[in-house]
Design brief:
The structure holds two protein chains of two kinds. By secondary structure, chain A is of the alpha/beta class. Chain A has two domains: about 230 residues, Alpha-Beta Complex (Quinone Oxidoreductase, Chain A, domain 1), CATH 3.90.180.10; about 130 residues, Rossmann fold (3-Layer(aba) Sandwich). Chain A is about 30% helix and about 20% strand. Chain A is built from 13 helices and 19 strands. In chain A, strands 3, 4, 5, 6, 7, 18 and 19 form a seven-stranded mixed beta sheet that branches. Chain A has a six-stranded parallel beta sheet with strand order 10-9-8-13-14-15, with helices on both faces. Chain A has a two-stranded antiparallel ribbon with strand order 1-2. In chain A, helix 6 crosses helix 12, helix 7 packs parallel to helix 8 and helix 7 crosses helix 12. Chain B is globular, with a radius of gyration of 22 Å. Chain B contains 20 helices and 20 strands. In chain B, about 55% of the residues are buried. Helix content of chain B is about 35%, strand content about 20%. Chain B folds into two domains: about 220 residues, LarA, C-terminal domain (2-enoyl-CoA Hydratase, Chain A, domain 1, Alpha-Beta Complex); about 210 residues, LarA, N-terminal domain (Rossmann fold). Classes of the chains: A alpha/beta, B alpha/beta. At the A-B interface, helix 9 of A face helix 14 and helix 16 of B.
């Protein structure tokens, strides 16, 4: 049976075309003219004896995927990806030839790369911070879904993952729940990085998938004194409240809401006090500027949304001694003095908060252009997470009914 | 020809459509047959010689006050306080009444050799007036004589150095007012009286007070116990101000009160049709209505707002009285009633009203949704004596675009109040838990003291103003308003008057009695 996959080629002309298309028509609209195309693919080779084949059931479309497809991602990533690659790093699938469902922890750290001894970060369990992402026996690639050797989730040809990267899915979790584990793990990592105290005022900018998962993670792991969320769309506002936000307002009103709670004054468009922590789940010039304007002096801005090249006035950061902290991926977290794998915590959060309900639409691979356009306009269209549905019409075993309705 | 009294019209099949204010515009609505339309008495005549009348009032004061000139002497400290930009509505053509009165007071002061004179705009917790507004209210001559020398003040209710605590009333109410006013040898208060609530002891006890003092009567409890606050005999707001005023007097503060009545000639010639009865519209009135309606439909909101706020009303002084506060105010109130009272026989199931672009708190500003609620449910609803025009459990239908828009410089705390407080509760008794935080918020205090912002607590007062109506009626419907903003207020949005009546039928049944409060001009219903 022919295996199909969405392959991302290195093609500068198509990069440019997708960038132009997405700029004019909206995020996700670059898919039709860009370097992504649906083609026959061979299953990837197993790189070693501790590797497994994973057959995707659902694979999410993430903001970083959209940036890549739109040709908007930072050139920083050029040396830490390898072409051609099959995107898709939010994956629930079945393991080898069994019905065992697993989610993939896609970061390709030293263990997956066969690097001995492991780098300092990996030795500490911080695989997201691996210092060898471009080295070892695998081609460069931050994660499965950006590495030519591993395949990715946007393919019914499957992918390969090291045993350290697979996490069995407990039975109570649906496929929709399971596909939300990876983005939730990012949110858990951010929530821990935020260093939130019970008396803190925390503001979350953005209420797409990452924003909502961050709200859920904060509310579950380290609920602050007041959790405020700036959410643009009505369904996002409702979900943010349901997931544990104390105050949900339009993004334009977030600084105002923070000011009221912190009883700050204002000068030069910046609060003189502000939130203890601002979590930026957007990653744009505008959101970072907003974050800096509403964080208190010596407070922390956590960047969860993937930024690219941004232009921001850092005078207030310097003057007010604000810490800007990146929060990428996951690994091991120290929660209450206990070291735990981020994915284990994420599964708890997903189960406790019912995050599978954030899956709003599913598409078959051959409707990838529609899927990406939908994901790119998810907020406007009342959606949160858009996924590819690979429950095998082609493969006839190992499928498990998902809690969601038919393919969109 | 003397002005005609008010009139209650019963709508029949031949009745022309009725004019409703609708913010920066108006609508013609066909009211159901049998509806009542309340038309105000026509404006009373203006004083032929206002300056002469002022001089007479100063020389022949009411009550036990001595003539003003006899109270003035060289070496004394004289403070003249005056009503702020919230009066009159719309702002009047020059010369403003305050200018006419204060010029006469200053002339007497100059004759007596008084050289320590300070003017104070009695802002209470209102926004500071702009230089242009002060200049308009006082006239260029007074403004230029006082402002450059730091002798024109705006009351600062947040400056402890400017306040003095005079004590507690027998009800335990703090009386804390402007220190300069309280410690002067004589305080002259210059009032403009538009409605029955204005003036009297409220002028000083509210206009020159601090938050600590105001909170005793600006609250939900007082408002629900004021039925209405336009009726002195049944107003707890009035009683509280009277207790405070009497304590102020007992503390030795010597007040010479000057109150003026304005006639209700509210709009200039091109808008004259607004205050005419529709069946008496001339061809010219109809043409003016059509032309301005069409023009406003094609005009951006901001421009329309600017056009209306540039209107200077032709209203004129119809009476002036001076002397002892209570005696003066009794006469003023008689004058207000003589001009505005209209006898109305019984309540109705539905009260309709068209709300204009202006209220006391958005002069040269935006009528935000909170002010829409306050104008309709605070002011218009309370324009009664006896009992409300609408029965308990009835419906109020208001017409106003109710934009989700705020003036960030004038109403900063309103925005937060709308986003935070009203999002949680619209119950006036419940919102009090937020009051202290807003009242003491340092940013709002800063903007009130240094900018042109209403005090942080002011939106609470606006909502308390609605408390009596909210407790009394079964539903509030706004026709033609921003739906989200209307819902945030806790009201129901309707796209047309017909829809509003249909919605109201859920509350008052299918054959309701309807009363329309026609304005302008202002009227006060004496509901029997």
């Amino acid at each position: 049976m022919a295996m199909k996959g969405l392959v991302f080629e290195r093609n500068l002309a198509r990069f440019a075309a997708s960038r132009v298309a997405s700029a004019f028509s909206g995020s996700g609209r670059g898919a039709g003219v860009g370097p992504l195309h649906l083609t026959d693919v061979d299953p990837p080779e197993l790189p070693g004896p501790q590797w497994h084949r994973v057959h995707p059931l659902l694979a999410g479309i993430c903001g970083s995927d959209l940036s890549t497809v739109d040709g908007r991602s930072s050139r920083y990533f050029e040396d830490v990806v390898s072409f051609p690659f099959i995107p898709g790093h939010e994956v629930v699938g079945t393991l080898d030839d069994t019905d065992t469902r697993v989610v993939i922890e896609p970061v390709l750290g030293c263990v997956a790369r066969g690097i001995v001894p492991r780098c300092g970060a990996c030795a500490e369990g911080r695989t997201g911070g691996c210092e060898r992402v471009a080295f070892g026996h695998l081609a460069p690639g931050l994660q499965i879904g950006f590495c030519t050797d591993t395949g990715g989730g946007w393919s019914n040809g499957g992918l390969v993952a090291h045993e350290a990267q697979v996490h069995p899915v407990p039975d109570p979790l649906s496929d929709d729940d399971a596909v939300m584990v990876e983005p939730t793990a990012c949110a858990v990592h951010a929530a821990v990085a935020a260093g939130v105290d019970t008396g803190h005022t925390v503001a979350v900018l953005g209420a797409g998938t990452l924003g909502l998962c961050t709200v859920a993670a904060l509310a579950h792991i380290s609920p602050p004194g007041t959790l405020l969320v700036g959410a643009k769309y009505a369904h996002q506002r409702r979900l943010a409240e349901e997931l544990g936000a104390d105050v949900v307002v339009d993004p334009d009103q977030l600084a105002r809401a923070v000011r009221t709670r912190s009883r700050s004054l204002e000068a030069s468009g910046t609060l003189t006090g502000g939130a203890d922590v601002v979590v930026d789940c957007v990653g744009s010039d505008e959101s970072l500027t907003q974050a800096l304007s509403m964080v208190r002096p010596r407070g922390t801005v956590v960047l969860v949304g993937m930024p690219g090249r941004v232009s921001v006035d850092l005078a207030s950061l310097w003057h007010r001694e604000v810490a800007v902290v990146g929060a990428y991926a996951y690994g091991t977290e120290n929660v209450g003095g206990l070291l735990r794998r981020t994915f284990d915590i994420a599964m708890e959060v997903v189960a406790a908060k019912g995050l599978g309900s954030l899956v709003s639409a599913r598409y078959p691979l051959d409707r990838f252009e529609e899927a990406l356009a939908h994901a790119g306009a998810a907020g406007r269209r009342g959606a949160v997470k858009v996924v590819f549905d690979l429950h095998a019409r082609e493969r006839h075993r190992g499928t498990r009914p998902s809690t969601k309705g038919p393919v969109s | 020809m003397s002005p005609r009294p008010g009139f209650v019209l019963e709508v029949d099949r031949s009745t022309p459509s009725t004019l409703f204010w609708h913010g920066e515009g108006y609508r013609l609505e066909k009211l159901p047959v049998g509806s009542r339309v309340l038309y105000a008495p026509e404006p009373v005549d203006a004083l032929a010689d206002p300056v002469g009348a002022i001089r007479r009032a100063l020389d022949e004061p009411l009550g036990d006050a001595a003539p003003l000139r006899s109270q003035l002497r060289a070496g004394m400290q004289l403070t003249i306080a005056f009503d702020d930009v919230s009066l009159p509505l719309p702002p009047m053509r020059s010369p403003d009444i305050r200018q006419l009165v204060i010029e006469q007071v200053l002339e007497l002061a100059a004759e007596a050799g008084v050289d320590d004179v300070v003017l104070i705009a009695a802002l209470a917790l209102h926004r500071r007036m702009t230089d242009a507004e002060l200049r308009h209210a006082l006239g260029a001559r007074i403004y230029d004589a006082f402002a450059p020398h730091g002798l024109l003040w705006q009351h600062d209710a947040e400056d402890p150095e400017q306040l003095v605590h005079l004590g507690l009333t027998d009800q335990g109410e703090d009386v804390e007012i402007n220190k300069r006013a309280a410690t002067s040898d004589l305080l002259v208060y210059v009032n403009i009286n538009l409605v029955a609530m204005d003036g009297g002891h409220k002028s000083v006890a509210t206009g020159l007070a601090s938050y600590k003092s105001l909170r005793h009567h600006h609250n939900a409890h007082t408002m629900t116990q004021s039925r209405s606050f336009m009726d002195q005999h049944r107003s707890e707001l009035h009683s509280s101000n009277w207790r405070m005023g009497q304590l102020i007097a007992a503390s030795g503060v010597k007040v010479f009160q000057i109150e003026t009545n304005l006639n209700t000639d509210t709009f200039p010639e091109q808008f004259r049709f607004l205050q005419r009865r529709e069946w008496e519209w001339t061809t010219r009135d109809r043409a003016a209505f059509l032309a301005s309606s069409k023009a406003l439909q094609a005009t951006p909101d901001r421009v329309a707002r600017s056009i209306f706020h540039s209107i200077r009303a032709p209203h004129k002084m119809s009476a002036v009285q001076a002397g002892e506060v209570e005696a003066v105010h009794a006469r003023t109130t008689e004058n207000v009633y003589a001009q505005q009272l209209l006898e109305v026989d019984g309540q109705s199931d539905i009260l309709t009203m068209g709300l204009p672009y202006i209220c006391p708190y958005n002069v040269n500003s935006i009528m935000n949704p909170i002010l829409v609620a306050c104008l309709g449910l605070g002011y218009f609803f309370n324009m009664y004596r006896g009992q409300p025009l609408v029965r308990a459990g009835g419906v109020v239908i208001m017409s106003h675009p109710t934009p989700w828009a705020f003036h960030p410089g004038h109403h900063p705390s309103y925005i937060d109040f709308f986003e935070q407080v009203l999002a949680e509760t619209t119950d006036p008794a419940e919102i009090g838990k937020y009051e202290e935080a807003y009242a003491t918020d340092p940013w709002y205090v800063h903007l009130y003291r240094t900018g042109n912002a209403y005090h942080g607590v002011h939106p609470f007062y606006m909502w308390y103003w609605c408390a009596h109506a909210l407790e009394h009626v079964g539903a509030v419907i706004i026709v033609g308003g921003d739906r989200a903003a209307v819902r945030r207020l806790g009201f129901k949005p309707a796209s047309s008057m017909a829809d509003a009546f249909e919605m109201a039928s859920d509350v008052v049944g299918r054959d309701p009695s309807i009363t329309h409060l026609h304005s302008p001009p202002l009227l006060m219903a004496d509901v029997r």
